[in-house]
Design a protein that fits this description.
5-stranded antiparallel beta sheet; 9 helices; 5-stranded mixed beta sheet; alpha+beta
């Protein structure tokens, strides 16, 4: 097939991988990709994928993180992986452009706002569109520092062994983080191993086993907010919004003297982190300190924050818009970016910290109650312990 030139901004976003049924996934693929719209690969900025004419869909029970390449006599196909499902796409080159992906648009279609109120909210969000980005920001307010106990010697572990398919997952993740500046090659005497942990949705989570480093790290005693105090402040909130930071920990840079301590080892070599990653023992304390600095003067007045969970609450719609504006300004000043698809705006009811926030008060999350109600009745001591 002849080469086609397509501008980068003609893209469709990543297909949701949370659809529960095979038929629904196929339908969503057809609706999203259509017959001409390309899918931009997030790791290859100069290539796009077009759907083939093939109607065959194949189930895979392997990781969705890497792509499978399949060659035929005249055509090479790439497969965009969805948990347990793939769709064949044809690969085409595109012309170079400096245009980046358009920012995600926050959704609030299921809110209780009238058309005029939705317009006001939309105008506010558009005025802060620069902070709804596709990449994490880098805050200018704080850096993460690691203090180890005096006299501690570097902890150096060998990489864990993995099957070829799992090694490919590690390579893909390493390449992605290198391209994004999350990690850099290292010459550190420290080395922690990588762990691949399966998640409930079928994904394989890339983790670093920092247990040996954490054992000799001096603990940061900065407090995490009590959930009960947080929920008490939300009693009788009439309008609530929740904000989700994009890869929140990655928006905090590592202190220069601490980068070597974050080094991790794989079959690809030794790397160290430029930003704060999950697994470091004091990462929650650093992030909570950051959010308290950023939102000082607003906390307990119009917003609350528990790590990267931010909730804005107000008694009227007009006041809520003003409160959102203040929070947006504070986050923008700290160069913190948000993930629009996970933000919720102007709701009367909102799930937060395992509870349901309503104008009538705080209630337990019905979904969590249903899980307990459906739990099999324990028949022995071990089953009781598992339930508890």
């Amino acid at each position: 097939m002849a080469e086609q030139k397509v501008p980068i901004n003609e893209v469709v976003r990543q297909i949701s991988n949370t659809l529960p049924k095979h038929g629904e996934v196929i339908q969503r693929i057809q609706e999203t990709l259509g017959s001409i719209q390309p899918q931009l690969d997030s790791q290859i900025a100069t290539q796009v994928y077009f759907p083939t004419t093939s109607s065959s869909y194949t189930h895979f029970r392997s990781s969705p993180f890497h792509q499978i390449t399949k060659s035929s006599s005249s055509l090479s196909h790439k497969y965009v992986k969805i948990p347990y499902l793939t769709i064949p796409l044809q690969l085409h080159d595109i012309s170079h452009t400096d245009e980046s992906l358009p920012p995600e648009v926050p959704k609030f279609s299921d809110s209780i706002l009238c058309p005029d109120q939705q317009k006001c909210l939309c105008n506010l969000l558009q005025s802060f569109s620069q902070v709804f980005t596709n990449t994490p920001g880098r805050t200018n307010k704080i850096q993460h520092h690691i203090d180890v106990q005096p006299g501690s010697k570097p902890r150096n572990s060998a990489p864990y062994r993995y099957a070829p398919a799992r090694r490919q997952i590690i390579e893909d993740k390493i390449n992605k983080m290198l391209n994004e500046g999350i990690i850099v090659p290292s010459k550190s005497p420290w080395a922690s191993p990588v762990v691949l942990a399966p998640e409930k949705d079928g994904f394989i989570c890339f983790c670093i086993d920092y247990r040996k480093l954490n054992e000799i790290t001096i603990r940061d005693a900065y407090p995490i907010p009590r959930i009960d105090d947080t929920l008490d402040a939300l009693q009788h909130a009439h309008f609530v919004s929740t904000l989700d930071l994009r890869s929140g920990y990655w928006q905090v840079e590592m202190d220069a003297s601490s980068k070597a301590l974050t080094a991790f080892v794989t079959h690809k070599g030794l790397f160290e982190c430029t930003v704060m990653l999950f697994g470091l023992t004091n990462a929650p304390a650093t992030f909570q300190r950051l959010m308290n600095i950023v939102l000082s003067g607003l906390k307990w007045q119009c917003c609350l924050v528990c790590l990267d969970d931010i909730i804005v609450y107000s008694s009227t719609f007009e006041q809520h818009l003003e409160d959102l504006r203040k929070v947006f300004l504070a986050l923008a000043d700290a160069n913190l970016t948000r993930k629009a698809s996970k933000c919720n705006f102007c709701r009367r009811e909102m799930k937060f910290l395992g509870h349901l926030i309503t104008p009538d008060g705080i209630k337990p999350d019905p979904g969590l109650i249903a899980t307990i109600e459906k739990f099999p009745e324990p028949t022995n001591i071990k089953a009781v312990q598992a339930f508890l």
